[in-house]
Design a protein that fits this description.
Helix content: 40-55%
Oligomer: single chain
Number of strands: 5
Shape: elongated
Order of helices and strands: EEHEEHHE
Radius of gyration: 21 Å
Number of helices: 3
Structural class: alpha+beta
Length: 138
């Protein structure tokens, strides 16, 4: 996948670049009326003579991007299903259906913290970015 990014600031040997996130309305947010407030995602890349305001072309590793997406959606789904099934099997009080459904929904909070720790310690921006080159207007 190829994205256009803009250099925001330069600090030491790192360039902070802003990449626009994909949204449901595509790239024409003014026509959709959903009032998106997401301004983009900031990534750190090695500074190779870039200057603030410069446009860059980022190429991402599609394989890693798909793997990270499947983890981001797969972990919460598996935790919710496993918790729901286990609570339905082993809970012997109240309405089993309602208790197991609530337990499954509460397990999504647990999966949020699992993903947060994975994001903090395992996933790196450098695992996704394949190359960074100055934008040539292509």
């Amino acid at each position: 996948m190829i994205k256009i990014a803009q250099v925001i600031t330069i600090e030491n040997d790192l360039a902070y670049v802003k990449v626009a996130r994909a949204s449901a309305c595509g790239e024409n947010c003014a026509s959709c009326g959903s009032s998106c407030t997401d301004k983009g995602h900031i990534l750190k890349v090695k500074n190779e003579g870039y200057h603030p305001g410069q446009l860059l072309t980022l190429t991402t590793k599609d394989k890693n991007l798909l793997a990270y997406s499947s983890i981001a959606y797969g972990i919460p789904l598996s935790v919710m299903i496993a918790t729901t099934l286990l609570s339905y099997r082993y809970i012997n009080f109240g309405n089993k259906d309602i208790v197991s459904a609530v337990t499954g929904l509460l397990s999504l909070v647990l999966s949020f913290y699992i993903l947060r720790q994975l994001d903090r310690f395992v996933f790196k921006d450098s695992d996704i970015i394949e190359s960074v080159v100055p934008y040539r207007g292509e």
